[in-house]
Amino acid sequence: MNHKALDKNNQNEVTELFTSVFTSSEGEEEGKLIGNLSLELSSNIDNEEIVCFGAYENGSLIGSIFFTRLRFNESILVYMLAPVAVSTNHQGKGVGQALISYGLNALKERSVAVAVTYGDPSFYSKVGFQALSANIIQAPLDLSMPEGWLGQSLTGEPIQAINGCPTCIEGFNDPAYW
Ligand SMILES: CC(C)(COP(=O)(O)OP(=O)(O)OC[C@H]1O[C@@H](n2cnc3c(N)ncnc32)[C@H](O)[C@@H]1OP(=O)(O)O)[C@@H](O)C(=O)NCCC(=O)NCCS
Q1: Is the shortest distance between the CB of 93 and ligand 1 below 6 Å?
Q2: Domain boundary assignment for the chain
């Protein structure tokens, strides 16, 4: 397996992967929702606001992950991990955790201070995420499951509290995702 940063040229394979994985795991409606999100994200990869990585096996994309910037009043670099998918027949073999670790390391190399995500704590705790209080970092929109708001420092120092509500990229500005 090898990992690499993806760009707009990977749009079709990325969209196909997310659509098929989320259709299999969550049903057709969620497959469409996340498929459309991944199309919008992948067609706007700029390696600043939107960063994307892929895991390949024998030349096929078997996993992909997006990180998008959250902007605060201060200039601190915070990225949100979402969404991530591993092809259905490669799940449960460590591909997802390896891809997340690869992405987090790439962010560390860019001096990103904090990674956040919104998902299942039992999975994301395996790759270093912990519950994140809104007193430390707020989510950009109201959360239906505040216990799923998670973060990790990428500097080795504890996460510093950041004032104010961040803005997310346009694609996530929809209560359906939160
Ligand atoms: C979630 C996902 C990315 C994990 O990738 P993966 O390659 O299957 O996971 P890994 O093999 O690296 O890690 C497996 C571990 O994660 C756990 N895990 C996998 N999927 C999980 C899920 N949806 N919820 C909770 N835990 C999960 C497994 O129990 C396993 O734990 P174990 O090692 O203690 O047995 C992948 O299963 C996937 O694409 N699922 C469907 C889409 C999805 O739910 N994406 C995440 C939300 S954006």
Answers
A1: yes
A2: 2-177
